[in-house]
Write a structure and sequence with these properties.
With 210 residues, the chain is an all-alpha fold. The protein has a single domain, classed as Cation efflux protein transmembrane domain (Alpha-lytic protease prodomain-like), CATH 1.20.1510. Helices cover 86% and strands 0% of the residues. The chain contains six helices and no strands. α4 packs antiparallel against α5.
Length: 210
């Protein structure tokens, strides 16, 4: 009987891509759910940091959807999607900056109880997403950028929980704004990192293709 050269490798790649799709679908749905929850909580509690987190979750959901579309695609296609992900993160940073400006012009003390509860739920969801994505973070640029988004979400979740505690402690709105500004910096740095990696991958693919 003849042997099927490369069949084992093909099956391994197909199995890996199937795992990638499953985990991306799960984190996509989680991020959509937490986005809706945090938008409602942000409106109810008047929290800038919660809205920042909600926008981040929406951007992540779009990122995971894009990641699903290029599972199994070539390096160049994945790099282009990663480039677009970087632009999405940058857009989230701009939205956060606008929200911060609005709150500075219209100061208000957030309701720390609803803010804290929503932040804890979001942190738990983000931690689960990071745990799901971690085994695949080094597989390719597509999963690496998805993992980058999930890691940022942990920082965001911890920061908003801390902000809720400080709002309760001081009875003031400045901790909420301070965390929103910190998240703005994180988004900008993450966007630059993802864009840099994507550009490097694009250049490499062009060189490889001649």
């Amino acid at each position: 009987m003849g042997e099927c050269c490369g069949c084992g490798k093909t099956l391994d790649v197909a199995a890996m891509q199937a795992r990638h799709r499953r985990v991306l679908w799960v984190v996509l749905l989680i991020n959509l759910a937490t986005f809706l929850m945090m938008v409602g909580a942000s409106w109810y509690s008047h929290s800038s940091s919660l809205l920042s987190g909600a926008l981040d979750n929406l951007g992540d959901a779009a990122t995971y959807l894009l990641s699903l579309l290029v599972v199994g695609a070539g390096v160049a296609a994945k790099a282009r999607v990663a480039l677009f992900k970087g632009v999405l993160i940058l857009a989230a940073a701009v939205a956060v900056a606008v929200q911060i400006g609005w709150r500075l012009a219209h100061p208000q003390v957030p309701l720390f109880e609803s803010m804290g509860l929503a932040a804890l739920l979001n942190l738990a969801a983000n931690g689960f997403c990071l745990w799901l994505l971690t085994p695949y973070r080094n597989d390719d640029v597509n999963l690496a950028s998805a993992w980058e988004c999930a890691r940022n979400d942990i920082f965001e979740g911890v920061s908003v929980v801390l902000a809720a505690g400080l709002v309760a402690l001081f009875g003031a709105g400045w901790p909420d704004l301070l965390v929103a500004i910190a998240l703005l910096v994180v988004f900008l740095r993450s966007a630059l990192r993802v864009l840099r990696i994507a550009m490097t991958e694009l250049r490499a693919s062009r060189i490889a293709s001649g």
